[in-house]
Amino acid sequence: MQAGTNGFKSGFIAVVGRPNVGKSTLVNRLVGAKVSITSPRAQTTRSPIRGVRNGPGYQAVFVDTPGSQKPRDTLRSRMQQQVLDSLSESDVVLVLFDAAQGDLGTGDRYVARLVAEAGTPAIACLNKVDLLRDPSEAFPVVQEISGFAQYEDVFLLSAKQGLNAEPLVETVIGLLPTGPRYFPEGTVTDYPESLVLAEYVREKALAVLREEVPHAIAVEIDEVERKDNVTVVYAIIHVERASQRMIVLGKHGKTIKQIGTEARRDVERLLGTRIYLDLKVKVTPGWRNDPRFLERLGL
């Protein structure tokens, strides 16, 4: 379909905010499928992930971006640049704030400033209102948010429960320009299969491992081998130090087995076939500051 034909509307919607405000949960909710992994830990999303929602007369492509934060290594610098690129390349921006934290912090103001400077039509979203004792507790925060920029609208949301998700979609569609169908109608995400599989494994590792290890973990799919009745996925969990490798393995291999068991369930649902997941742990010192390694990971 050509741009503007029959009034079809389409566009890219960047979902931005500081770490852990619920961006991935919201994108999954709006798309209606799991395209982004979720975790209560910071830096869960490391690269923009596009989730596609098709509807009558429109195609909305939601872009889950990394949490915006001060760069401290090459990985975080790349993550921050991806946020800036997503802002400049999008038709609409959803700016997420955490209703449960009370007063907004410097990180929220920093993100709001980036959005204002980009000049893209933006909607402010106050997420996690389900955690408030009374919705009226959000009103002072709404006033504070409204002072950051000229937003097209402000929504009180619960991405987890779906509160106001559909009215938000309707508002987004109203802001989209006429345009082409960027992806075939059945597409949910354009993320390569190998990267999706790697993210599923990393999600389970984040859930299982202790606090000091997750940021040092990267997952790489070495090979996917399809046989008659089983798909074999060979994956490598990279860490930066030998001590971290021992933590990931766990006593008698218990931890790595747990990660593999939990990841296999999700991968089987994704691929619709029986899975054998072969997990190895490798020490790759300083991978977060190695540009070539980051490129291998799609970062």
From TrEMBL:
Mode of membrane association: Peripheral membrane protein
Region of interest called G1, as start-end residue ranges on this chain: 17-24
Residue stretches making up the KH type-2 domain: 209-285
Keyword field: Cell membrane, Cytoplasm, GTP-binding, Membrane, Nucleotide-binding, Ribosome biogenesis, RNA-binding, rRNA-binding
Organism superkingdom: Bacteria
Residue ranges, annotated region (G4): 127-130
G2, as annotated region: 43-47
GO (cellular component) term, any one: cytosol
Binding site for GTP: 17-24, 64-68, 127-130
Molecular function per GO: GTP binding; GTPase activity; ribosomal small subunit binding; small ribosomal subunit rRNA binding
Domain Era-type G, first and last residues per copy: 9-178
Protein location: Cytoplasm; Cell membrane
Record's signal peptide: none
Renumbered residue ranges of the record's region G5: 157-159
SUPFAM superfamilies given in the database record: P-loop containing nucleoside triphosphate hydrolases, Prokaryotic type KH domain (KH-domain type II)
Keyword Repressor: no
Location of region: G3: 64-67
Keyword Iron: no
Protein's job: An essential GTPase that binds both GDP and GTP, with rapid nucleotide exchange. Plays a role in 16S rRNA processing and 30S ribosomal subunit biogenesis and possibly also in cell cycle regulation and energy metabolism.
Assembly notes: Monomer.
Similarity comment: family membership: Belongs to the TRAFAC class TrmE-Era-EngA-EngB-Septin-like GTPase superfamily. Era GTPase family.
HAMAP family: GTPase_Era
Protein name: GTPase Era
